From TrEMBL:
It comes from the Eukaryota. The chain crosses the membrane at residues 32-53, 65-84, 104-129, 136-153. Keywords: Membrane, Transmembrane, Transmembrane helix. It comes from Hemiselmis andersenii (Cryptophyte alga). This is Uncharacterized protein. The keyword Transmembrane applies.
Amino acid sequence: DTVKGSVLWEELGRRASVTTIEAKFSVHPSVAEFWCFVTSPAYAAPAVLWFLYPLASLPPALHFVLVNCTLTAVFSSLYHMTLFKALSSMDAGQALINFYNLSLLLAGVTSMRVHCAVAAALAMVFIAMWRKTAKISLVLVAFVVPPSLYVLWARGEHGAAISFVVGVCCFLADRLKFLPLHSLWHLTVAYTAYRSCFTFLGALQSGCHVSLWSLQHCPPSRI
């Protein structure tokens, strides 16, 4: 048991095998991927809602999403600073949880039971598969991209939808080792998340139920 525990500890502390192609430690000696590190806090942009509106006026599901956005920023920053495998898995898992909860919100799902169940299920998947998270992340994201883009476009959030598509292109360009654009992925996805939260809140304030099936009754968000 001691040997197994030692091996596991070594695995948790080793460097991630799949990283971005940004030059390592090129800007600061203590930060592995500097530009990815400094853009990671952008994920917390939706949390500005906490300062713009009374907390009691925001539904619990939106609070849950804002907490997840903030956690995504924290885990992403820590991972890109250190490149530890354990933090890589935490970063990927938290990002997927955040993305799925945002997608649920856009689809009009406000039940905390559903949000918590989805988050718990994704967390268990990533805990069980923490050694190999790159492929499962791509597969899980692919399930919710089309409906989320559809909702954003139908709600008049064309900029947010285009920003997400550009972000995916940046992510793939880096993953396929063409250009080091992963840091731009952070910014574009953060903007999409920011607008997604405002889209949901704008529809809520106008008395419109945001969903995949009732968008024709929702005026475009003006927040």
